[in-house]
Amino acid sequence: MPLKPSKIGLSSRQAAWEVLKVVAAGAYADIALDRVMERFDFDVVDRSFVMEIAYGAIRYRYTLDCWIDSFGKIPSTKQPPNLRWLLHIGLYQLLLMDRIPSSAAVDTTVELAKRSNLSRLAPVVNGVLRSALRAKDAGTGIPLPASPPACLAQKHSLPLWFAEELISWVGVERSETTAKASNQVPPLDLRVNKLRISPTSLQKRFELAGIECIHIDGCPYGLQVISGRGDLREWPGYKEGFWCVQDRAAQWVSPLLKPNSGDRILDACSAPGGKATHLVELMDDKGELWAVDRSKDRLKLVAANAERLGCNCLNVLEADASSLIAMKPEWRGSFQGILLDAPCSGLGTLARHPDARWRMTPAKVSELVALQFKLFERLLPLLSKGGRLVYSTCTIHPEENERQIKRILALHPELKLEQEKQLWPDISRPGDGFYAATLESC
């Protein structure tokens, strides 16, 4: 049950702590946040505060652990889990939220310990936080490792294996930039539904509602939200299907297929459907698009999004994309365009998904590389002669991207690489890290 706060802001911090516990138990961060919010009656400001602390503490898990290791008597990973996550809540506010008074960060965290089953450890919480505060105020911080990968991992809260890989791919200097970008809070990007409204007209409607947007360079139908509050579903044009939320990097992918009105298109791993509905918009809702996914629940999202956006030529099919040729033999060679937005490690979206870095391992990457190859091989027979296949991921791992395409091209001389591009997370350019290759069947 939520605590009855005796101090302002105690409930919001308790909620953030609960999110960390739920994520530690295996839930995805966004699902954990929604689950916890159902138990609290927060306004928009409090909800934003909870999300900022929870997502920030999850994102900076390893860095915060290093601070616990420096000032606690017991290493972070051997602390009682709930104590570890509570210390993360306090340390994140102390070290990474300038607008929070230090006294408020310490006092509320200690109070949460007292009101929970950690009451006997409240002095430990107080001691660790005050030691960290003294080090911060003195400008000493905690020592950084001499090893470049270990230093990168500690500074930017990355798994050590990923820090090592990142440096091997782009060098120390570029890896620093990528790591910083992976910790930035991402902007809110929208894609305007060109079937129903123009970006300029939607922007004017937003202005009347006090929502400020700017056009996104390189995205003809993209708007970045600069300011705006409240439930997005209550914003102008949402119910009418005038727009949807989609990162600018994801908006770059569907146009690579160059779909025409009347084309037959397959989106093989479609859910939640952002790229599928984008393809329909580019086709002027004329033709036939099949959105395939093996998750029945996630396909419901595709169908709901398609209905709201008025994508009438979109059809959904619950199926494993690797089995389509066996399931639908009549589909052989029948698609002018295939989008394989492949399951991937998601290492380009760490800013957007704060827990993703802690879920991935080198072994899982290897499994994904094998799955991506299998999907490609099974989908290729469905492509018509002269058709295009776009292979895309939201990762920056070369094995899943350019090296994967190199392996595929070596086995398929009938394919021509039309173009490929890797977008990297960058502090000077908002947007996720994405890769896409366009292949043409000769």
Description:
It is built from 17 helices and 11 strands. The longest helix is centred in the middle third of the chain and has 22 residues. The strands form 2 sheets. Strands 7-6-5-8-9-11-10 form a 7-stranded mixed beta sheet, with helices on both faces. Helix 3 crosses helix 5. By secondary structure, the protein is of the alpha/beta class. It has 4 domains: 134 residues, Orthogonal Bundle (N-utilizing Substance Protein B Homolog, Chain A), CATH 1.10.940.10; 38 residues, no CATH class; 58 residues, Sun protein, domain 3 (Alpha-Beta Plaits); 193 residues, 3-Layer(aba) Sandwich (Rossmann fold), CATH 3.40.50. Strand 5, helix 12 and strand 6 form a beta-alpha-beta unit. Helices cover 45% and strands 15% of the residues.
Q: Structural class from helices and strands?
A: alpha/beta
When the domains are counted, the total is 4
Largest sheet: 7 strands, mixed
> Could you give the order of strands across the largest sheet?
7-6-5-8-9-11-10
What is the overall number of helices?
17
Globular, elongated, flat, extended or rod-shaped: what is the shape?
A: globular
Helical content stands at: 40-55%
Element-level helix/strand string:
HHHHHHHHHEHEEEHEHEHEHEHHEHEE
CATH superfamily of the largest domain: Vaccinia Virus protein VP39
CATH second-level architecture of the largest domain: 3-Layer(aba) Sandwich
Question: What would the average pLDDT be, to the nearest integer?
Answer: 95
What is the fold-level CATH name, i.e. the topology of the largest domain? Rossmann fold
Rg over C-alpha atoms, rounded to the nearest angstrom = 24 Å
Q: How many extended strands?
A: 11
CATH class of the largest domain: Alpha Beta
Multimeric status of the protein: single chain
